[in-house]
Amino acid sequence: MNKLKYISKCVCTALVLVALIPGCTANFEDLNTDPLGLTDEQAGSDFELVAAFLQQAQRAVIPEDVGTYQLTENLISDCYSGYMAAQAPFRSNSNNLTYELVDGWNSNVWIYRYVNVMNPTYKVMELAKSNTNFKDLDALARIIKVSAMARVSEKIGPIIYSKYNVSEADGSISYDEQKDIYPLFFADLEKAITSLKELKTVATSPQMKKADLAYTANNYDNWLRYANTLRLRLALRIVKVAPALAKTQGEAALDPQNGGLLEANSQNCFITTSVTHPLNIITSPTDWSDTRMGAPMESIMGGYNDPRIGKYFVPAKDPAVLNQFKGIRSGIDIKDKATYNGYSELVRFPQKMQLMVAAESWFLKAEAALRGWTNAGVAKTNYETGIDRSMEMHGASAQAAAYKNDATSKPKPYVDPKALTAGQNDVAATSPYLSTITIKWDDAATNDKKLERIITQKWIALFPDGEEAWAEYRRTGYPVLFPVVVNLSAGRIPTIPGVRRIQIPIREYNTNGPAANAAAAKLGGADTGATRLWWDVADKSF
Amino acid sequence: MKKCLFIWFLTFIVGTISVVPAQAQDRQLTGKVSDEKAEGLPGVNILIKGTTRGTNSDGEGKFSLSVPASGILIFSSVGYTSKEVSFNSSMTNVDIDLVPDSRNLDEVVVTALGIERKAESLTYSTQAIKGAELTRAKDPNPMNNLVGKISGLQINRSSSGIGGSVNITLRGLKSNRSNQPLYVVDGLPITNTAGSGSEGSFGGGTDRGDILSTLNADDITSINVLKGASASALYGSQGANGAIMITTKKGTSGRTRIDFSSSATFDKAFYMPKLQYSYGQTPSADGGTSYSEESWGAKGNYQDNTKGFLNTGSTLINSIGLSGGTDKVQNYFSYANTTNKGILPTNKFNQHTLSFRNSTKFFGDALSFDGNLMYSTQKIHNRPSSGLYFGVLPGVYMFPRGLDFDKYKQYEYMSPTRNLYLQDWYNINYDKGQGGTHHQQNPYWVLNRNATDQTRNNIIGAANLKYTFTDWLSLSVRGTLNQQWNKFERKVYAGTQGIISGETIAGVLNDNGRYQREEGSGTTKYGDILLIGNKNLNENLELNFTLGGSINDIKSSNWALDARKLKTANAFLLNNLYRDAPINSLKETFVRRQIQSVFASANLGINKYLYVDLTARNDWASTLANTPSAKSGYFYYSAGITTVLGEMFKLPEWNNYSKLRFSYAQVGNDVSEFVTQIPSAKFGSGLLEINNSGVFEGVPLKPEISGSFELGYEARFINNRLNLDVALYKTNTKNQYFSFDGPLGMLNTKVLLNAGDVENKGIEISLGYDVIDTDKFSWKTGLNYTANRNKVLKLHPQLAQTYPIGGNFNVLRLNGSFGDFWGKTFLRDEAGKMMVSTKDSIPLSGPDGYIGNSNPKALIGWNNTITYGNLSLNFTIDGRFGGQVISITEGYLNSFGVSQASADARDNGGVVIDAVNEDGQAITKISAKKYYAAVGNRDGIIEGEVYNATNIRMREISLYYNLPIKSKLISNASIGLVGRNLFFFRNDAPYDPELNTTTGVGGQGLDIFGLPTTRSMGVNLKLSF
Questions:
Q1: Segment 479-508 of chain A within 8 Å of chain B by CB
Q2: Is-contact B656 B720, C-beta < 8 A?
Q3: Is 0.95 exceeded by the ipTM?
Q4: Residues B887-896: pLDDT tens digits?
Q5: Is A171 on the interface with B (CB under 8 A)?
Q6: Rounded CA separation A147/A145 (Å)
Q7: pLDDT tens readout for residues A146-175
Q8: Quick check: B223 and B182 in contact, CB under 8 A?
Q9: Domains of chain A (ranges, CATH numbers)
Q10: Across the strands, what pairs with B859?
């Protein structure tokens, strides 16, 4: 029958068509290729990818992203160091600053650095294994990695370092205890220093020029000096708990054979950021308006008549304290943001992030000299050069001589006219939290006094790097800062001696449970803000 | 690629190659079909026996058909016994009566792919609703009219006013990615854009509306809801959450017709937060001017500033439909427009919809064409959004008591220092050094100086060519194209609160405002080819089968600019972007996916009482490229069986009909696009973003799979007056695709994996009863009941057992269920008593924990239609029982001391609590200020902001009068009074729990200064010519 034949023909055609459709899956790989992805060709041109790895890492040593900066720096160490204070009563004033530690904030310290530093630096070091031309990038990667991860460890304690990207049989990734991490830091720095010493005399490679966000000339020499200074910084950090290692590493850093420290301000390490300095947005009253000058800054710099105070802060606009340099005490009762709106804002910073300045290296050397380390020079000279470098950096050299010679000015009492309970936030002249240390070097002073003098001046010079300032405060107990007034930790964190660290992120307990628990068990105390880090000994005497 | 084009080409011409000789032109035969009451019977299928030629009767039962000299006409209609009438050359008119079929009152239903099937033979649950029910008390988004009328269906609206997007869930939440059902217009799927909106408590995002709001309700003949995977398995992964099948109107043959409808409704906010006006602003500590945002001050009698702030909104919907045709060609054309003035001042919504449909038969009816073109355009000014950023209501609700609100209606002042107008608000004034906070701005400033504009254009074009080989076999080739263009713009003027305004560069750039702009377009193409057979193999054996293949291709791109540095203040132009700073916020995004499928289904009917249903489908998804399932695709199937008991056994007299059904279905689903081959870096915005995502522990991704069982029973009793449909179901969704924040010690910290087992089980009951059924007076009532239980049985064993979704308080956690809230709890002692501090009785916060779940335990809808002569009254009452919602709004109002609750507590000398302090002493009352400071806000003890979501409301009332017009011109006229969302019989929450900050995944059951719910009332006029 003709019709039936015709039908079956059509049915066959249809079936063939149906069967052919899946034949089109050949282009699925193209369809599923992200148009935003970098192709191999693009990755290679001008060393785009490898440079991007290193640039991302440099921009994350101290996060350039304003939201992340606020959580990882500003609402932790910028305030705990006494530099700044939040004027907003975040979370109904129940937050880090009143010792109710907020994991949702603090976990960013960990998350941001692992994603943005550990990941790309690891990739650069992997690439360098098979490409001898990338020796310089390998060195830079290691320096950046140590710079960032030291900051993480100094806030939290144990971190994942030697076992990064290595999972155990149960899928967990093991931590290194803090005492084991410092030798690893030194090993990485040693490797970088060796490479850079060799490269110092050769022309900067195009990939290094592209990747380097800090220096545009003498790249290798400058990074070598940075690495040495970092080595000295980390050596002094452990001087009370591992004196022998500290001395070996410190003296290696000081050894001129190894390339020297950051000596002049032209060698300062500032990372060019891709966005406005985060503090500008955090402090500006027409932007977030969340941070103001810290009360200890007012007390110490104000007491010292420090010419740099106007280079750091803007005079207050609040009628009650008009034109004074007025700080907020951290950890107080704040009802609303408007109250302290008119206290001193921060000045606006240029579009670069301060990682390390020459002044610091002179103060480090001053302490090294105090400790009698080889090649450390004379403590007094180092101390005064440190002040000079800082004054010079802030355009206040003219006042430096008089300042160094001031043997009477002391930190001044603090008064808060806007306290909710009158007088509650004040620090009287008789308060034990008001130091009597003066500026002028005194060779006859005790080592404790000398150290306090050095660290107090270093604290002023380090601004706005609250992370380093808070670490040194916890190590040495200097400068003398004000305790919190409101403590909402329900006894978990004693007001004296105050918060010592932040916790291991909840995300780590959730996703890397066995390792996080093992690390917490070795903290030497509960995983709270009260437990001291390895190098944070209770006895602060020299 | 070439091969693909070739196939597409073939697909399109396949119908046209099959030419059969056209028949000689015949004469017209007209007539009328009536029912047993001698009233015209519409929609009767009229077919010339032995041919495929035929037509349908029109609204009055009339028909016109070109016929050969003589032959036999078959008249068939659902619920009536078919009749054959022979005609000869002398006859020009045939009038017949059809008698109701006592046995088969069943309907033909539109099932997956648009295939019509006898309801009796279905092995799964569907529920239909007629177009008339949607237009009775119109909502600009027709989907809102489904509430309470379909069991198993839950609708949550976004609190973004008229035309806002809706979130429909069928049989519970299943996926962490999308829980939206598939929307199908005339058998062809359309892609619904995720409505979205602001998710975080800061908010600021704006609902972009969804495609559903662009549909004209008057174009809809009926909506059929396929609730489970069994029903929609033929649609594959897109149908995993069920399908909403929309059938649109067609022209009728033999006559022309004009339908006009016009409705005017007025909206008023009716469930406002309860605010206090008896305590004033918190005074300043130093006695000076207070800039406090809080009202914990002196007792007094203060001005109610919310009065008169919100408008009475108005919505006008006009639509006209023109239709007509011959038995060869039928056309339908419609135009509708919606004009709305929102309750939020300045908010406007405007929409025009055009639709054209043509059905033509060729080659002696063997080839039929059905084409459809729908165009819509929307313009929305200041669509309301939730959240604090750019929120209008925070400033209205929280304005400190005792200050003069009216003064700030003049929302700007001339700044002497900047020589331009800046915001004036009690705590925002640039020249007074007051910067305010992100909690609030001057609401009039937000409306006028942070205004948004959105436009959306949408075209859906569909074509269906069907060739009928014989009376039992046909081949269809169909395609649909859906193209949309969206724009969004927000102009943020200089002087806006700092956190959300332009950025400054010290000494270089002031806050010059901020310019947000987005443009996007998307194309969805779908094509399929279907061979459909429908054969009675013998007297007792009936076979329906479908064999087909389809291709679905989705492509969209979008760019978004968020410029916070402008050269000159308040010039919102791309040319005014400040050029010496990098534009760190211009981003493009892309979506691209394609799914190709082959599928088959067979339905075997035995002795008209046993039906067996089988479907099988294999999908190949582009998103699985480079995985083991790339080549093979993924296969899944469904199987079902149903028996019509009355045909098997003798049923008792009172049971007119009984049917039992059982089915099992699997549905596969692909993964997100672009995740199976991840580049080492991506272009961010002027920076390369280094990749840190990848599969977890090297395990390649695979498709998700969900399996569902359904058991159902349908019956009619008491002379078919009582009907019942019960469905029990259980669905397990396994191997869901997750993008998870994994361990940070590995290179890939964003891990991609398949995990989980989410179970939904539930019961759906629909009960209908014709209480009174006389010629003059009738009352039909219907009840829908739904209860769904959800449980997360499995997550990835190695990873966290609490998985955040949506960025708010929603989490997915092991042994918990979808919609769980996870947030800060009260610290409790061993006896479970709330603990407060000993020092000053402040509630202590415990760890984060389970604080509630947004899903209702049961949904009940009760519908009634009462007709008396020309009058008809319809009303729907519906209730949601159980479940919780979080009101961040109330939390803020409490902590700022502006809620009535905070005033009552102050009047009573504190909040009455049952607590103990740290020393174990009982505390029964604490200071309202201290309590709410600890509990309120977005980051207080959220447990204290959780409310019961049970509510029962008068959903819809309409009263229509059919005007008894006896006119040649007007065939039908009616006028109706309608009301929607009239009042609550009960509501335990401080806002309407049906409203959401977002219709996306996560963000359900949360209110952050959303627009209050509105009551609408109006008139509706319908005229037919």
A1: 490, 505, 507-508
A2: yes
A3: no
A4: 999 999 999 9
A5: yes
A6: 5
A7: 999 999 999 999 999 999 999 999 889 999
A8: no
A9: 44-281+315-521 (1.25.40.390)
A10: B786, B880
